[in-house]
Amino acid sequence: MTDLSPTDLSATQLSATDLSALPDLALRTLGGSVLAASDESFAAKENLINPWTPRFSPETFGVKGQEYDGWETARRRPCRDGVPGDPGHDWALVRLGLPGVIRGVVVDTAWFKGNYPPHASVEACALDGHPSPSELADADWTEIVPRSPLTGDTAHAFPVDVERRFTHVRLRMLPDGGIARLRVHGEVVPDPSFLTGLTVDLAALENGARVTGCSDMFYSSPENMLFPGLARNQSEGWETARRRDDGNDWVVLRMAAPGRIAVAEFDTTHLKFNAPAAVSLSVSADAETWREILPRTRLQPDTRHRFRLDSDVEAGYVRADVHPDGGLARLRLWGTLTPSGERAVRERYEALT
């Protein structure tokens, strides 16, 4: 079994490996955006939150010089009119796709070997709604990563120990140079006003759901199933290795909050020859005692399946069994929060804002 339980460790205890197990709240595929930057003379600021590993092709020169899969600024000069002075610094402003508690930040200088910044720092703020860069300039910013040294072509992991919900981060490079990626790992803290009294996806990562365990993730992580939107190819879902025994694969989710599931959706889009033959669904209050609410049901390849459920069982966890193996592009569990679920979401939000 692969344990993917959300960590309960404080930020000071997290390692780089622990950070990668937490969702990247700034990721473009999760709704993140680079709103503004002081300069992007050589490479675009938007590259900072691309989902893929930074790429590099040597001797690929465009009108701005060597092309980099990252953010690169012009050289700042420490002298003006022949008088030495502060060269200043460059910055990029990022809106988190998923607001939440930040547990760690990764500043990756991949492929920047002679043009990386010697230092960087990161700040965060909380401002709901859809603020503009000028409005964010006046926000109450908190330093979450102090000025820290960087080296070239390296992923630098920095733990964060601030128990607050944030919506935006500001990356500062001191004084200039190139950074390939900014990863902001943490725990999603949704706004309860968009969950309470509504039918919502109780399995959505953006609503606070998390994968806590699975039998196999040989080809890809099951947490991909909880991402927003549709999978663009089979790598953007969950896929297991081929089983050679009589068992089956499974995944356990902690739902966004305790609730009742009305519709279950199993999407095998793009999985044409490796979809499961069947699926079943069970729920639990404590992830120990399970009750089946969807019996073993046949699936088709490359198909979006929707099943209306008659169960009125309140659940905090759900287990999906795929028979015998294969992949799911997306898993959606549409339902409503129970009174205890609404209370839990509201109390957590209020404690962190």
Automatic annotation (TrEMBL):
Reaction(s) catalysed by this chain's protein: allantoate + H2O = (S)-ureidoglycolate + urea
Q: In this record, what's one Pfam family?
A: Allantoicase
Q: In which pathway does it act?
A: Nitrogen metabolism; (S)-allantoin degradation; (S)-ureidoglycolate from allantoate (aminidohydrolase route): step 1/1
Q: Which SUPFAM superfamilies match?
A: Galactose-binding domain-like
The EC designation for this entry is 3.5.3.4
Task: Keywords in alphabetical order, please.
Answer: Hydrolase, Purine metabolism
| Record keyword RNA-binding present | no
The organism's place on the tree of life at top rank: Bacteria
Q: Where is the Allantoicase domain?
A: 31-188, 208-337
Which InterPro entries does this chain map to? Allantoicase, Allantoicase_dom, Galactose-bd-like_sf
Molecular-function GO term, any one: allantoicase activity
Q: Does the keyword Hydrolase apply?
A: yes
Would you identify the family this protein belongs to, as annotated? Answer: Belongs to the allantoicase family.
Q: What is this protein called?
A: Probable allantoicase
Give the source species.
Actinomadura harenae
Task: State the organism's lineage.
Answer: Bacteria, Bacillati, Actinomycetota, Actinomycetes, Streptosporangiales
Gene this protein is translated from:
alc
